[in-house]
Specification:
Blueprint: H1 11-26, H2 45-64, H3 75-78, H4 103-123, H5 128-158, E1 186-189, E2 192-196, E3 212-216, E4 219-222, H6 228-236, H7 248-257, E5 265-267, E6 275-279, E7 282-285, H8 297-306, H9 314-320, E8 331-332, E9 351-352, E10 355-361, E11 387-390, E12 407-409, E13 418-419, E14 423-425
Parallel strand pairs: 8-9, 10-13
Antiparallel strand pairs: 1-4, 2-3, 4-14, 5-6, 6-7, 10-11, 11-12
C-alpha cells in the first residue's frame, strides 16, 4: 500500500498520516462552512469527518475489538452512507440538516476511534483481516478527502460571494502565458490481446480485478488532456447549440439545465469580455492554456465528436498508461497545493490534473464477484448507469491512484474534477 509515496511506512503511521490529512483539509473551514450541503450529491465537511470515522468503528473496532464501546450509538444511523446490510441510514439529501452532533463532538468522535485503533495496532501486528480492512479504510478516507474538496468547492462556488477556500501560494501558480501549450498529438498503439486489471500484492479495490485479457483494435490516444482554449473553440463554434454533436440524453440535459459552458464558468460582467472561472482560490479569468475541468461525460463526448475524435475506452486508457511497466503514477495531485488543473505542457502525463472520462460503462470485469459481507456493498452495487473515469486529478491524494484505478460517476456529473482526453481509431 502506498498512501503518501512511502510504501515502507508501518500501518499505524499510515493511519495517522491519512487521518491527519483529512483534518488539515478541513482546517480552513469554519464550523458553519463544515455544515453546508449545497446539493443532494454533495455532503457537508462535518459529515465526511464523521463518516470516515464510522467506517473504522463499524468495520474494524466493532467486529475485532471485544471491549469496544460505541462513542454514540446514534452515529451508526447518522453516518452510515449506503451500507444496507449494516442498517438504515439518514437520507443522503438531508445531511446538511444535521446541526447536531456539533463539529466539536464529531472531532471528539474521531479522537475516540483513533485512540482505539492506535491501541489495536500498538499492541501487536494486526492480523491480516484487520490490516486489510484498515488499509481499505485508509483508501476510503482518501476518496473522501477528494470529495471534501469537491463538495466544499460546490458550496462556495454556489455562494453569491464565491469565497475562496484558501489562498494559494504564489509559487504554485504559474504566470499566465508563461508556457505555450504544445499542439495536441496522438500516440498510436497496435492493439491486439492485452492484459487489463490489477495483479500482485499491492492494494487495489475489488472492482479493479480480476486481471483478464481483452482484444484492442489499433488505436491512438492524445498525449495530453484538452485545454480551456480548445474547449472555448468548441463553444464559439456553437457546440452547445448543435444537437448533432450530442447523445440524446445529453442534449436533453443541456436544454433542461441550460448549460452553455463548463461548471464554474461565467461570462464576464457588462463592459468586459471573456469568461471567468471559480476556483478554490477564488474567481479569476479563464486561462486558455489550463486543462479544462468540470465537464460531464455528455460534454466530453460532444467535444470529442466535434473534434473528429472520440473518448478512449477504459482498456485503451489503461494499456496506454503502461501498467506493465509498473511505474508509479506521476502527475499534478492535491499534495502540490494548487487544487486546480495546471497547464497542458509538454510534461503532462496520463495521471493527475483531471479525471478523464472514458466511453466505457462501469461494470464488472469477466469473472468479477462481489466480495462477501457488508464490504461487498462498496463498489459492486453501483455497476449501473455510470461511466468510468481514469487517472486521478489535482484534488486526488498523491499515491492514491494506479493505472488500474476505476473511478465512476453518472454521465451528467460535473462537480467532480473531470476533463477530456481524446482517442481515435486507426
Amino acid at each position: 500500500m502506498i498512501v503518501d509515496g512511502r510504501a515502507e511506512m508501518r500501518l499505524l503511521d499510515q493511519y495517522r498520516t491519512v487521518r491527519a490529512r483529512t483534518l488539515e483539509l478541513a482546517s480552513p473551514l469554519s464550523p458553519e462552512d463544515q455544515g453546508v450541503q449545497s446539493m443532494p450529491d454533495a455532503s457537508p465537511t462535518k459529515w465526511h469527518l464523521a463518516h470516515t470515522t464510522w467506517f473504522f468503528e463499524t468495520f474494524v473496532l466493532e467486529p475485532h475489538l471485544g471491549d469496544h464501546r460505541p462513542f454514540n450509538p446514534a452515529f451508526k444511523f447518522l453516518f452510515n452512507s449506503y451500507y444496507e446490510t449494516v442498517g438504515p441510514q439518514h437520507d443522503r439529501a438531508r445531511r446538511g440538516g444535521l446541526s447536531r452532533p456539533s463539529l466539536d463532538e464529531v472531532q471528539a468522535y474521531r479522537r475516540h476511534v483513533d485512540q482505539a485503533i492506535g491501541r489495536m495496532l500498538e499492541a501487536a501486528d494486526a492480523n491480516p483481516a484487520v490490516a486489510s480492512t484498515i488499509t481499505l479504510g485508509l483508501h476510503h478516507e482518501q476518496q473522501h478527502q477528494e470529495l471534501l474538496l469537491t463538495d466544499i468547492k460546490h458550496a462556495f462556488g454556489s455562494h453569491p460571494l464565491q469565497p475562496a477556500y484558501q489562498a494559494v501560494a504564489p509559487a504554485s501558480v504559474p504566470a499566465r502565458g508563461a508556457a505555450v501549450t504544445p499542439e495536441l498529438a496522438f500516440r498510436s498503439f497496435e492493439g491486439g490481446v492485452v492484459w487489463i486489471g490489477h495483479q500482485g500484492t499491492g492494494f487495489a479495490f475489488d472492482n479493479e480485478g480480476p486481471r483478464h485479457r481483452c482484444f484492442l483494435d489499433p488505436f491512438a490516444i492524445a498525449d495530453r488532456p484538452v485545454t480551456c482554449g480548445e474547449y472555448l473553440a468548441f463553444m464559439r463554434d456553437g457546440g452547445y447549440a448543435r444537437p448533432e454533436l450530442w447523445l440524446s440524453e445529453g442534449w436533453r440535459t443541456v436544454a433542461s439545465e441550460h448549460w452553455r459552458a463548463p461548471l464554474y464558468w461565467q461570462e464576464a460582467p457588462d463592459g468586459e469580455t471573456g469568461w471567468l472561472i471559480y476556483t478554490l482560490a477564488g474567481r479569476r479569468a479563464v486561462d486558455p492554456d489550463e486543462i479544462v475541468a468540470h465537464v460531464s461525460y455528455y460534454e466530453a463526448d460532444a467535444y470529442a465528436r466535434w473534434a473528429g475524435a472520440r473518448l478512449p475506452a477504459e482498456e485503451e486508457w489503461e494499456h496506454a498508461a503502461g501498467w506493465a511497466a509498473r511505474v508509479e503514477p506521476a502527475g499534478h495531485f492535491a499534495d502540490a497545493g494548487r487544487l486546480h488543473p495546471g497547464g497542458a505542457g509538454a510534461g503532462t502525463g496520463m495521471f493527475g490534473d483531471v479525471w478523464q472520462w472514458t466511453r466505457s460503462a462501469y461494470g464488472g470485469y469477466p469473472g468479477y464477484r462481489v466480495p462477501p459481507g457488508p464490504i461487498g456493498e462498496y463498489n459492486g452495487k453501483f455497476m449501473s448507469n455510470q461511466m468510468v473515469l481514469r487517472g486521478g486529478s489535482c484534488l486526488t491524494p498523491a499515491g492514491h491512484v494506479r493505472a488500474t484505478y476505476r473511478n465512476f460517476f453518472p454521465p451528467a456529473t460535473r462537480w467532480q474534477m473531470s476533463g477530456i482526453r481524446l482517442g481515435r481509431d486507426l
